[in-house]
Design a protein that fits this description.
The complex is a heterodimer. By secondary structure, chain A is an alpha/beta fold. Helices cover 35% and strands 25% of the residues of chain A. In chain A, β8 and β9 form a beta hairpin. The longest helix of chain B has 27 residues. The chains are: A alpha/beta, B mainly alpha.
């Protein structure tokens, strides 16, 4: 495994390079607290150019390099910019300044967005797989594996029922199973491992380790420090959109726990 | 141990502190050395078209899934795809055929199929436009979670409307036969017309998707524009005759008759209805039909592609 993760000259192979990344959200209509029609009319009448737009500077100058075979945890309090950073790495949110360079197409474990609650689990597996860019043959090949991994059918034939009948845990398990069925160069997981029961968590952590061994890079956002410790070997600590700390898991998580315990 | 590290690319993390030949390379140089590309950059137009072609199964599956999900909670389920246009047509039959007895000088047997064809064919363009304007703005969750050429969404919605039209056409056929217009070879002409109208609708949907992603307010305005367009396309009456009666200037008749909705509706009527001869068609009708499809279809695709990297911006 070590050989596959290094170039011939002995250097580690980078998969994601973030170079001074800034991300700014523009929120329309966030200025006035009043939501009434007259207030809206007032805003339109008095509108100065580009008024009524609020800017939220969510990520402020983050730089790091991720290498092949690494599992990187992102920690930080709510609203610190973790998910936003992942979206920028995936190329789903444009950066305001700075650049993100990636090897291949990083994918966010966000297959749920393509799934429809009114359709059966079965059709959602196909739809989700297609949305991730798998071919029909690939999906047919892995269909049984996806269903078995999710454990949806352990308590009866649930896969042929509409997704709206699933419990939140079941739905989350199916989502993870679909997303994890594809081989990703760079996979990003946002709070996904926290859902599901303990046995499913164990299985998904094992799958994350497997994905790493397939020479990919895995990013994991979680508020569960144990799940970070179990799966990641490197951790980035974000606070207020800035990179506070970047280092081996033990070191960073210990510092983070010390900070949050106060 | 320095807790607060001003991390830069080079000093990333001392996992295995072996000196690397890459130390001292800037981010851009490092990216170039290992062939990394800028994330979220817009591909070239041919590359974009190729990516879109690779996603054709997704586009089709997404449109069919939307179609199925539409009536999945109703007891009659998928039957509503036919029942809704059928009820619609029945309402027109009741109002214009039975109550008002208004055949606008065509004879009832021609007028009702004339009306039903016009309404359904216009609805095809109308709903493609309405779903197009919300294609990006209404699916931000999808756009921000998964990577695919964004044009897949408006195209998928236009395809969904095409499927709905195919159901509606079944109702049209029932009405045609019911009013004594027997199936003829000329009915085959609806196939090229459908293809051309679909291409036009897709282009329109792409244009509106880009506009709607920047200005969501357009979704509120569009129904009024579409209603004006409907009356200017002769959906419910023979527009050319009506305009001639009011002594409208010739260029107005020509311009309104050449508008894409009127062109596709007239061609469809010409193909299906016996009593609707070629005298009702504007001059150069096929040229117009192809021209509108190519112009709006291709133009819309390029226009949409130009903003590809901006969709989903917060």
């Amino acid at each position: 495994m070590a050989e596959r993760n290094t170039a011939p000259d002995g250097a580690r192979i980078p998969t994601v390079i973030a170079d001074d990344v800034h991300i700014v959200y523009r929120v329309y209509g966030g200025n006035s607290g009043r939501g009434s029609a007259t207030a809206a009319l007032n805003r339109i009448v008095k509108r100065a150019p580009s008024a009524g737009v609020r800017e939220v500077h969510a990520v402020k100058g983050v730089s790091f390099t991720a290498y092949r075979g690494q599992a990187i945890g992102l920690i930080g309090s709510n609203g610190s910019g973790k998910s936003t950073l992942l979206k920028a790495i995936a190329g789903l949110l444009p950066t305001e300044r700075g650049k993100v360079y990636t090897d291949g197409q990083p994918s966010l474990l966000g297959v749920n967005a393509a799934m429809m609650n009114d359709l059966t689990g079965e059709r959602n597996v196909i739809l989700g797989g297609l949305a991730m860019g798998m071919t029909r043959e690939e999906i047919r090949e892995r269909y049984q594996h996806i269903v078995d991994f999710s454990g949806i059918n352990e308590k009866g034939d649930f896969i042929t029922l509409p997704m709206r009948t699933y419990s939140s845990g079941m739905a989350a398990r199916l989502r993870f199973s679909i997303a994890a069925a594809k081989k990703h160069d760079v996979l990003m997981i946002d709070e996904a491992l926290a859902t599901g029961d303990r046995s499913f968590q164990k299985r998904s952590e094992a799958r994350v380790r497997e994905l790493r061994q397939e020479a990919g890079t895995v990013f994991l956002v979680s508020h569960n420090n144990r799940s970070i410790r179990d799966t990641c070997d490197r951790v980035l600590w974000l606070e207020h959109g800035q990179l506070l700390m970047d280092g081996p898991t033990d070191e960073v998580v210990r510092a983070y726990e010390k900070e949050t315990a106060r | 141990m320095s807790t607060v590290s001003e991390t830069t690319h080079g000093s990333a993390v001392a996992m295995s502190a072996a000196p690397s030949p890459d130390d001292g390379l800037s981010a851009a140089e490092l990216a170039r050395k290992y062939g990394l590309s800028v994330s979220g950059a817009r591909p070239s137009l041919p590359e974009y078209a190729r990516q879109l072609w690779d996603r054709r199964h997704f586009i089709l599956a997404f449109s069919r899934a939307k179609m199925t999900a539409q009536y999945s909670k109703a007891k009659l389920g998928q039957l509503w795809h036919v029942a809704t246009p059928l009820l619609n047509a029945m309402v027109y039959l009741l109002i214009f055929g039975v109550l008002m007895q208004q055949s606008k000088g065509m004879g009832m047997g021609t007028y009702i199929p004339f009306l039903v064809t016009g309404v359904f064919v216009f609805t095809f363009t109308q709903s493609s436009a309405l779903s197009g304007v919300r294609a990006i703005a209404g699916n931000l969750g999808l756009v921000r979670a998964l990577h695919f050429p964004r044009a897949a969404l408006p195209i998928s919605f236009a395809l969904q409307q095409l499927q709905q039209l195919l159901f509606s056409m079944c109702v049209v056929f029932v009405f045609l036969v019911g009013f004594g217009h027997m199936p003829a070879l000329s009915w085959l002409m609806i196939l090229p017309v459908l293809v051309l109208q679909f291409v036009f609708n897709t282009g329109l949907s792409l244009v509106l998707a880009r506009l709607g992603s920047k200005t969501p307010d357009l979704a509120q305005l569009l129904p009024f524009i579409l209603r004006t367009w409907m009356y200017a396309s002769g959906v419910m009456y023979n527009m050319v005759e009506a305009l001639k009666k009011t002594h409208a200037p010739g260029w107005v008749i020509d311009v309104l008759g050449a508008n894409p909705a009127a062109v596709y509706i007239d061609l469809m009527r010409y193909a299906l209805i016996d009593g609707y001869g070629s005298s009702h068609l504007p001059p150069h009708v096929w040229l117009l039909a192809v021209g509108w499809a190519v112009l709006v279809g291709l133009g819309g695709f390029v226009y949409f592609w130009k903003a590809e990297e901006q969709y989903g911006r917060g």
